[in-house]
Amino acid sequence: MSTKTEATVDDLYRVPEHGKAELVNGELVLMPPTGGVPGRAAGEIYVSLREYERRTGSGYAFPDNVGFIVNLPHRRSFSPDAAFYTGELRGGLFLEGAPIFAVEVRSAEDYGPAAGAQAGANAGQAGIASRRGVRSDRRRPADPLHLLYL
């Protein structure tokens, strides 16, 4: 019988070609690059969050490919397409804890019956409610994460 070793945060730092990955269900899941339209949508959201950061000085806006170390069901890390974070910066290290706002923009492979079924399963694992194509995570008032899927 073979024993599978659970992936760790250290494995994220060693992703080949400095690619994007997340720790899901104890496994390192590589994330493919996105297309032009979803990339621009995420960029526009980041610009809006950056303006909010400048106006309020209450946190930090982040674009795609920034790693957050979290303690969510079935997930130890994630890297949203845009986020707003109020925790401490840690130099070149991943950020500790969830952002207060995070966005995932749907890409071409996120559509269709198979993608819809997988998105529903993923949302269920993380406790994310789905409404009108936008899913937001509002599990507990004490949990600062608000995750928006567009």
Task: Indicate the topology.
Layout: H1 9-13, E1 20-24, E2 27-31, H2 36-56, E3 60-62, E4 68-72, E5 75-78, E6 82-85, E7 95-96, E8 101-104, H3 113-126, E9 129-131, E10 134-136, E11 147-149
Parallel strand pairs: 4-7, 8-11
Antiparallel strand pairs: 1-2, 3-6, 4-5, 6-8, 9-10, 10-11
Notable features of this structure?
single chain, 150 residues, alpha+beta, tt1808, chain A, three-stranded mixed sheet, 27% helix, 27% strand
Description:
The protein is of the alpha+beta class and 150 residues long. It has a single domain (34-149), classed as tt1808, chain A, CATH 3.90.1570.10. The chain is built from three helices and eleven strands. The strands form three sheets. The protein has a six-stranded mixed sheet with strand order 3-6-8-11-10-9, with helices on both faces. Strands 5-4-7 form a three-stranded mixed sheet, with no helix packed on it. Strands 1-2 form a two-stranded antiparallel sheet. The N and C termini lie far apart (42 Å).
The overall number of domains is: 1
Task: Tell me the number of helical segments per DSSP (H or I, 4 or more residues long).
Answer: 3
Please list the strands of the largest sheet in the order they lie side by side: 3-6-8-11-10-9
CATH domain class = Alpha Beta
Run of helices and strands: HEEHEEEEEEHEEE
Q: What percent of residues are in strands?
A: 25-35%
> Which structural category fits the helices and strands?
alpha+beta
Could you list the spans in which at least 5 consecutive residues all have pLDDT below 50? 122-146
According to CATH, the homologous superfamily is tt1808, chain A
